Amino acid sequence: MGSTEDLDYPQIILQYNSGFLVSKVMFTACELGVFDLLLESGEPLSSDAIAACLGTSTTGMERLLDACVGLKLLAVELTQEGALYRNTEISNIYLTKSSPKSQYHIMMYYSNTVYLCWHYLADAVREGRNQYERAFGISSQDPFGAMYRSEEEMMKFMAGQNSVWSICGRDVLAAFDLSPFTQIYDLGGGGGALARECVSLYPNSMVTIYDLPKVVQVAKEQFIPPEERRIAFHEGDFFSDSIPEAELYILSKILHDWDEDKCRQLLAKVHKACKPGGGVLLVESLLNEDKSGPLETQLYSMNMLVQTEGKERTAAEYSKLLKAAGFRDIQVKRTGKLYDAVLGRK
User: Fold this and answer.
1) Could you tell me which residue ranges the O-methyltransferase dimerisation domain spans (predicted)?
2) pLDDT tens, residue by residue, 218-258
3) Which of 48, 64, 94 is the C-terminal boundary of a domain?
């Protein structure tokens, strides 16, 4: 940036200007079922056929499909019968609901919840607090009360988090050898995707998902099969209720929701409950030490502003919090993907 070409014609500024248009094209194609239909059809389809199957206008669908071709989410073949569209490989893997690596649910959460909060980003920056009150008419005092404002919203959030762990879970759990830890508590474990990855990677482990009663109920009913004997549940609020003794505590995307005081309070409770020789695994998106990047993490930190009480942090900041709680031998592993791992020992 800053080259003569950039100053003569601000390509990068124009790209940033239309960034939200790109997101909404992808979200809309997912929501309408474009990628699912093309996977199920097993053959390329015309825009008219897709519009008819999905109950949309032909003119709107044609433009949406062409935009998806421009984004390389679809491919098009021009035949004598006209243009025929098919999924690209990346769309089959990540944008169809039936794929084990589907990101559909997290995209729907971004499209229908996060997107609305970001409408008030300027207000969030002015005030330094989340924007649930403006976006949804709900008190900003309890971020998770707002996120879980209905069972439907809670399901969307939990399914969205499960989507994330389907592509990032194994990397963060394999960052360190966790096989010595057999008794594990996943604090705020939600829909249990990370717990399932954990018992898959470490077959001798037993993982207990600790979360709010209504979250545990949905996890049992919707996400964790009853035949999975290595995953147990504990209902409670880890700020106000006791935390049982265990060898390892996993806090995945937990501390980034809270301010320093709440983080210190929670980590102190975890340290007190932890068996000697045990540890805590933090799974977070780490900022560079000079806060210069990664861009995704900087954007996530903005999202923490509009949705929670927290922020993204550097490895040094997380290490400082762990040390203040009494943890030692702190190690940091960057995975090269969205989420990284920090391990502290008692």
Assistant:
1) 15-96
2) 999 999 999 999 999 999 999 999 999 999 999 999 999 99
3) 94
In the DSSP assignment, the letter for residue 150 is: S
Question: Which residues have a catalytic role annotated?
Answer: 256
3-state secondary structure of 18: coil
Residue 49 lies in a domain: yes
* Contact of 342 with 315, CB cutoff 8 Å: yes
Task: List alpha helices for 71-120, DSSP H.
Answer: 89-94, 104-109, 115-118
Domain end, chosen from 76, 94, 112, is at 94
Instruction: Return the DSSP state at 223.
Output: I
- What is the domain extent for residue 285? 104-345
Give residues with Cβ within 8 angstroms of 286, minimum separation 6. Answer: 297, 312, 313, 314, 315, 318, 332, 334, 340, 342
pLDDT, tens digit (0-9, with 9 covering 90-100), for 104-141: 999 999 999 999 999 999 999 999 999 999 999 988 78
Looking at the structure, tell me whether residues 309 and 193 fall in a common domain: yes
Number of structural domains (the chain) is 2
Pairing outcome for strands 231-235 and 328-333 = unpaired
Whether this prediction's pTM lies above 0.90 is answered by: yes
